[in-house]
Amino acid sequence: MANLLLQDPFTVLKEYPDRLTQTLETPLQTCCLRFSHGGDYLAMGASNGAVVIYDMETIKPIAMLGNRGGGHVRSIESIAWSQDDRYILTGSRDWHVKLWDLQNPGMPHRSVKFNAPIWTCQWRGEGNLGCFGTVYEEPHAFVIDFVPATPIVEKIIDPTEVLEQGEHDRSQEEDSTEFQHQDYGYSLVACVHPIHKELLIVGTSKGWLKIYRIAGRKTNLVHTYRFAYTNAKHLIISQSGDRMAINSSDRTIRQYFLEINSDLTEFNFTLEHRYQDVINRLQWNSICFSSNSAEYIVASAHGSSARDLYLWETSTGSLVRVLEGAEEELMDIDWDFNHMYITSNGLETCNVYIWSLVIPPKWSALAPDFEEVEESIEYREKEDEFDQAGMLEQQQELDQAEEVKIDLRTCEKFDVRGNEINYNRFVIPTDYESILMLKYWDKERLAGH
Amino acid sequence: MVTLPDWCPAYSSRKKDVETGEEVFCICKKPDSGELMVGCDGCDDWFHFSCLKMAKKYNELVFSFYCPYCQAGITGPGAHNDGKLPKTLWRRKCRVLDCFKPIAENSKYCSEEHAVAFMRGLVDRVEIPGQDSSLVLRQMLQEPDFDHFKNLGRNGLPTPSADLAPGLLTNDGTLQDLEAQLRELRGGAKNGVETQIEQLTQYSQWVQTVNDLLFGDNTQENANGDSAPAGGKTSRTRKRKQTVKRKAICGYSSELKAPCSAEDFVAEFKQLDSESTELKGVCCKLRCVRHSDWLGTRQTSLQFQLESLQSSEQRLPLLIKIRQDQLKMQLYKHITKA
């Protein structure tokens, strides 16, 4: 990656991508995509269950999850990278959630089967191999502990809710008034609060948000909030944890300001903006926030007439940019803040589109006295320009400049855009075995001719 | 189109020096000074070795020489429209590194002395600590007849004897790992998957029977003309498509085993109230979205497993061979001086 400090700051510090710069034509029918946290890799899940990882430096595939067996066999619904980018979670319509260790991507590290297709899967937090998942037609989300060889799956359920559930089944016939229990519907989406990692926010099919607090083996439903009377399709929270957006089936994206008091007992949702397509009343396919406090939100629209990504400023709620270039409906979205890439996959061709910044080369950045000229000009030496007189002073100045110790070894903690970069990134090992096999097959093929 | 090399001046047909009238040769257009020259087979002119940037030591290796002009088609056979441009041909050189004599007939060497010298050089490069290298070499050529010698190395690298490198192939971790994987694979992993497929087929047939018993008349009405289903999975899916609204219970159970005979199940099912969705662990919903395609998913998954096991079965022996060759090569390189 080019040294961003040397580039034109006005371009580098733009807060969202400019234009379509790359189209990846893969043989797969990509339906789900996710950047690694460092932005070095892009994982793409396909409708046949394949998951391929692209290296973003070379824009070439470098690993295929499950090429030694044990891959998914139905379309991938959800992909999640672990915080250190070493592990990947995949949830699929084939009822499995699989955990992959990229040290050995040929076989799944762990696998767990549910009794219905998977909606979403998500990491629980840093360090441990814990995961949350939501499953088709299940009233509760699940927590999966992947540490033991046979993963432990538990329902995320408040002790008081168990009663409710029994009551609820009977209430259909008897209409029991003894408990005015609420039917929240099926749990569809789940999201861990990025700051308070013990909080899990679940969005349901009846428009409820349920906030669980999970501490050790204790699970408490600490808050519920009804945002609408419809399905929750996506639920995202900004990195800073105070902005939340819900994409729901009523063709609306609701953006909330989220306030939580320090002992995690009081929750306050303030509806900031609602994003709707007022003319065509389109559904939103997917949504994504920008980094940190989420100054921007980007969404893809449903329908063959919609071919762009829409980007709004979250503070004012106004549309600031339409990312054009793709010639088809766009589905999933992900945003890599390190390289300032936004990626999305097309519905028809299943190509993967990448929008990013185009930084023009700026030579004057290399030395402050470099000057860029449009045409060649004849240089006229100034009267005292190369005089010997000032040489001594100049030399002293240079010596002084050299006195300053330059630290070349300590890594910067943040890049110019304010993303944390000083952490150990996992590097996917080169699969030498496959290269050997390819070479062998090539030789065989040549010998055959 | 071959162009002239950039050090070669453009062609000139001049044969005599303008001033002295002496005959001139080569691209340099100078008279013969006794320096080594070579005659071109295309234009019959003579050329200095040094002018053509050819080392003089290659003198004896020239088989048929063509000057740059002939090679570019300006003079010689290439100039007469037959199109084919001539090229200089060389004789094969003796295998001894600094000998530039051409090889003798049916040999790779210029003379018998050099053949012996070359082989001696090879033998001298072998250096095995604590052992007589010539003895070891002799041992490697166990059957010292000529045909055997000629074929040495043609079928992969020869395996070194046990006392030369004890445990070379048996003590290698990677190799042991691969071999263990292969043993495990051949030990019946495939059978396991095949049994599972068998079980699944049996269960799907049971579900089919139950559905036929429950809604049998329904099917016959809708699917008239459809050939009798053999109970296979393909006929089942095909039938599904033709009779879109065919009534059938989902039939998914986590065990994938028939809980009782189809007749008993049907009898119990008919006594069930309409609200129930499960009987003996079997999902009885009529149009079950939740478990839709449970059979197909499971079948594909097992099929995939079988395929990947088969490809591993092909891959592993190959990897083992590659690793073995690698180890042997390392050993041979180790005992040979550069």
UniProtKB/TrEMBL annotation, chain A:
The cross-references to PANTHER family, in alphabetical order and at most eight, read: RETINOBLASTOMA-BINDING PROTEIN 5
Chief subcellular location equals nucleus
Question: Keyword annotations for this protein?
Answer: Nucleus, Repeat, WD repeat
Question: What protein name is recorded for this chain?
Answer: LALA0S04e00650g1_1
Biological processes per GO annotation? regulation of DNA-templated transcription; subtelomeric heterochromatin formation; telomere maintenance
Keyword Nucleus present in the record's keywords: the answer is yes
Organism lineage: Eukaryota, Fungi, Dikarya, Ascomycota, Saccharomycotina
> What is the annotated localization of this protein?
Nucleus
GO MF terms held by the record:
histone H3K4 methyltransferase activity
Source organism: Lachancea lanzarotensis
**GO CC, one annotated term:** Set1C/COMPASS complex
**Signal peptide: which range, if any?**
none
Q: SMART domains recorded for this chain?
A: WD40
Residue windows of the WD repeats: 69-104
Q: Does the keyword Repeat apply?
A: yes
TrEMBL record, chain B:
- GO terms (BP aspect): positive regulation of DNA-templated transcription; regulation of meiotic DNA double-strand break formation; subtelomeric heterochromatin formation
Gene3D superfamilies linked: Zinc/RING finger domain, C3HC4 (zinc finger)
**GO-annotated cellular components:** chromosome, telomeric region; cytosol; Set1C/COMPASS complex
> What are the record keywords, sorted?
Metal-binding, Nucleus, Zinc, Zinc-finger
One Pfam family recorded for the sequence: PHD
Q: Does the keyword Chloroplast apply?
A: no
| UniProt cross-references to InterPro entries, sorted A to Z | Spp1/CFP1, Zinc_finger_PHD-type_CS, Znf_FYVE_PHD, Znf_PHD, Znf_PHD-finger, Znf_RING/FYVE/PHD
Q: What protein am I looking at?
A: LALA0S01e03224g1_1
Give the organism, scientific name. Lachancea lanzarotensis
